Amino acid sequence: MTGYVYDFIEGNKDLKDLLGGKGANLAEMTGMGLPVPPGFTVTTEACREYLRTGTMPAGLLSEVEHHLQLMQTRMGKTFGDAHDPLLLSVRSGAKFSMPGMMETILDVGLNDASVAGLGRQNGDERFAWDSYRRLIQMFGRTVFDVPGGAFETELAAARATAGVATDAELSTAQLQDVVYAYQKVFQEHTGRDFPQAVHEQLFLAIGAVFRSWNAERAMLYRRQERIPQDLGTAVNVMAMVFGNRGESSGTGVAFTRDPATGRRGAYGDYLRNAQGEDVVAGIRNTVSLGELATIDPVSYRQLLSIMQRLEQRYRDLCDIEFTIENGKLWMLQTRVGKRTPAAAFVIATQLVDEGTISLDEALQRVSGEQLAQLMFPSFDTDAAPPPLTVGVPASPGAAVGAIVFASAAAAAATGPVILVRRETNPDDLPGMIASQGILTSRGGKTSHAAVVARGMGKTCVCGAEELRIDGDSVTVAGRTLHAGDVISIDGTTGKVYPGAVPVRPSPVVRYFEGELSAHGDPLLAAVERLMTHADHSARLAVHANADTAADAARARRFGATGVGLCRTEHMFLGDRRQLVERLILADSEAERDEALAALLPLQRNDFGDLLAVMDGLPVTIRLIDPPLHEFLPPLEELTARVARAEALGEDPGHDGTLLAAVRRMHEQNPMLGLRGVRLGLVVPGLFAMQVRAIAQAAAARVADGGDPRPEIMVPLVGAVQELETVRAEAESILAGVPGAPPIRIGTMIEVPRAALTAGQIATAAEFFSFGTNDLTQMTWGFSRDDVEGAFFGRYLALGIFAASPFETIDVDGVGELVHIAVDRGRAVRSGLTVGVCGEHGGDPASVRFFHDAGLDYVSCSPFRVPVARLEAGRATTRATGSDSR
Ligand code: PEP
Ligand code: MG
């Protein structure tokens, strides 16, 4: 084996780190004896070295020369030969697929001499000159940053001079003139001639592909997809085959199953007399793969048999790119294919039924993110107007938004938008990310728009050919719509509606709600089967953050086995504000006790309802956390009211008293101020009232024959002494409520000091629950209310973090505190129950972390409970798997 260059006959599909996905899979297919054009892969290691030093690593070029020699021998052709030249494609190929984000240069090896040879060999001079002009354009743009527009201008001028509308109508002589004009453009922009030395062409092309790893759009895509920025790309150099040599040639993209629904059977698009990028760019409309059976039955049968072998080899849905050159089939690429979330669930269970994979492996083939997408709503078609048109349903979902025609407009929009384009290209990525959905008038399910949208889980309708897009308006069905007009697009049916169509809940949500049976529905049956297996496998339990009986009931329907966080503060809002005001303004112990006594029965009722809904399951009730002044009117509002009254010479009355209290309690940093346990220790009787209400509610449930399992959780503890003080009072209250069941007392770990002193805190806590919202805030020193809007966008763009640490747990920092607290806590109290109730409890990547950290449960909002259940199961069964990124 060589150092930086691997022949296709040397590698295999497991070498993705080194050869990139495309290179590893080309090697695998070559090893299987499939018709892959000869070639070699320059490794990602070479790319990393090049990007580090800015020069080609020592020895690389001679290795390339050596492998080129082998290719020439195998092909019986010579690179750059004036009579019968070998031409090369030079393509990027990273470990994870990044569709269209990096560079490809085709037809490397053409120059003023070999162009004639190519023309003679094929008996088609026009084709040779067209290839040459494509090379100069692609090479100029990619290697030397010549603006694409400079070439386009020449091409448009040539069409105008010839009096034709399309490039296809240009004659050989006219294309020759285009080549000369392109060479001049190249010279003017680069200060040098277009390289005639074909080896120089190849080396420069390899360097350009390396550099394209760091193209802005590629970096943005990686941030979106959470692909590490330091992997580098491999470069695949392959003998060119041509799909544009007439009607017995063509090119296509195919899937071994339908990537939209998972339906069994080959599926794809074919374009006659065309090169690969014509299909992917969606520039011309394709025919379905089935039609190839009529066009070229021999190649069609061969293709189907290859696809079957590929599925068996990869044990998963594969997508492929192929070319037919004069009736000969060539495989240009394969990989485990991207698919919609619905298809992922359906295919995973199909493969189990077919005996290809185990249920454990099937769980790895789906993800919490995909399940979350399936829980999005869809259109209520009964309430929809007749559609304006129907396009190709390319990526499912229901998207409503105002029309924008440009990526920049989408990125700048403040409300929801639909990006409407003839077709998209990789430069549209920021606009696609910013849009609710994408609508194009050209291209099939394998067009750029479709592939990228599916990858992002965005709704997409493409190939809506009836749309006439003209600058900043679109005409369809006799109506002209402008930028800003609202439309609705249905990525499941391809329908495009005027206006905002009402949306309805997803069938998966209705299934979780118990409104739909999984029987007879392939998607729901797949979801049911995989969820059952996940629950069966999971070590982590999933609880819900629920403050009301209604929320808790839904969480239970969605599979929660407890309430991990009941925030009691909502119970102080609404009509009850007045009671809280009385408590705050109380001048005497008697007044304060009166206010607390009025709150007690209200709290008792709330807790009673919650315990009834969650009968038999743990319900962790957190004592009040936010600063009390949050329950009073805002300072500005009160100041204005009092000032107005005073200006009118009136007595501000109650407002004056309130204002004084608000001023007294005003804090510069309320998030770091008098809240949580601190409030409980400073305002006598407040925690005691809550503890009494919990105990009385539980006692009443027991008396009614229920099985209440409340737990009391103390927020914002930073020192064991705080907890000891609260605990002592709580225990004496609990002991005084006859008939109450045993009630555990624990704490949240949300102050870094609590994590660090967890060994002390565990002496007074029967359980820990990580409040990772506050723990993240306090570990980073980020105000959770301010920073996300203020500068997280910039931090994400700079790659300082790949995802907001408020969404996905910061493993290195906050995660370390979690490990410390778990270790120190359990060292003191071996039976310590540990959970998490911050937002991270429902985030798929974070759930995996909490599993690994040895937590007992995660708690998240009811809607995310199924996602967390699935991820909890996946975390246990994680061993093998197929990563289709
Ligand atoms: C937390 O801090 O993670 C938490 C769950 O509490 P809250 O969000 O109510 O501060
Ligand atoms: Mg908190």
The count of strands amounts to 33
Rounded mean pLDDT is 92
What's the quaternary structure here? Answer: single chain
β-strand amount: 15-25%
Bound molecules: phosphoenolpyruvate, magnesium ion
Summarize the structure.
Helix content is 45%, strand content 18%.
Observed structural traits:
single chain, alpha/beta, elongated, binds phosphoenolpyruvate, binds magnesium ion
What would you say this structure looks like, in words?
There is one protein chain. With 885 residues, the chain is an alpha/beta fold. It contains 36 helices and 33 strands. The strands form 7 sheets. It has an 8-stranded mixed sheet with strand order 14-24-23-16-17-18-19-15. The chain has an 8-stranded parallel barrel with strand order 26-27-28-29-30-31-32-33, surrounded by 6 helices. It is elongated. It starts with a strand and ends in an 8-residue tail after the last helix. The C terminus is likely disordered. The chain binds phosphoenolpyruvate and magnesium ion. The site of phosphoenolpyruvate (PEP) has 10 residues, from strand 27 and helix 31.
Helix-strand layout with pairing:
Elements: E1 5-7, H1 16-31, E2 39-42, H2 44-53, H3 60-75, E3 78-79, E4 85-86, E5 88-94, E6 104-108, H4 114-122, H5 125-144, H6 148-162, H7 172-190, H8 198-212, H9 216-225, E7 233-239, E8 250-257, E9 264-272, H10 276-280, E10 287-288, H11 292-295, H12 297-314, E11 318-325, E12 328-336, H13 341-353, H14 359-364, H15 368-374, E13 378-379, E14 389-390, E15 392-395, E16 398-404, H16 407-412, E17 417-421, H17 429-434, E18 437-440, H18 448-456, E19 459-462, E20 468-470, E21 473-476, E22 479-482, E23 486-490, E24 495-498, E25 503-504, H19 507-512, H20 522-537, E26 541-545, H21 549-557, E27 563-567, H22 577-585, H23 589-613, E28 618-622, H24 635-647, H25 654-665, H26 677-682, H27 686-703, E29 709-714, H28 720-735, E30 744-749, H29 752-756, H30 758-761, E31 767-770, H31 772-780, H32 787-790, H33 792-797, H34 814-828, E32 833-836, H35 844-852, E33 857-860, H36 865-877
Parallel strand pairs: 3-4, 16-17, 17-18, 18-19, 26-27, 26-33, 27-28, 28-29, 29-30, 30-31, 31-32, 32-33
Antiparallel strand pairs: 1-2, 2-7, 5-6, 5-7, 8-9, 8-11, 9-10, 11-12, 13-25, 14-24, 15-19, 16-23, 20-21, 21-22, 23-24
Bound molecules: phosphoenolpyruvate (PEP) and magnesium ion.
